[in-house]
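Table S2 (continued). Query chain:
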Amino acid sequence: MGLTDDTTPAAVVRRQYLASATGDLAALRATLAPDVEWTEMAGFPLAGTYRTPEGVTSGVMEKLAQDWDGWAAHDDTYVADGENVVVLARYTATHQATGKPLNVRVAHHFTVRGGLIVRFEQFTDTALVRDAATA
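Corresponding output:
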């Protein structure tokens, strides 16, 4: 069984990170359920809940790419429990307007059903993100 046909929750989440890292938004959308709920934390520049795979990539990934150079989520630790996957990671980027670097820890909670991500919630130090984006 190859990576793309593994529908375990952790494998689906890992494919989402790999697609994000390579900028392959079509592959990223393929990991998301049609009725996905993707929540960026209150205080984060893109705070709110995004729905549909297209809504997530246009409202989050494309916007991050517009405002930040080299935006990346470096996933390092996976904790899987049934359909729930928590990933500890790190965001790195440089804000385009301020030139300030960002290097902050983050936790992501995914819910995966039927081989697709149905829910995402982000937890991060939004003050560090705001500071990097503020002149």
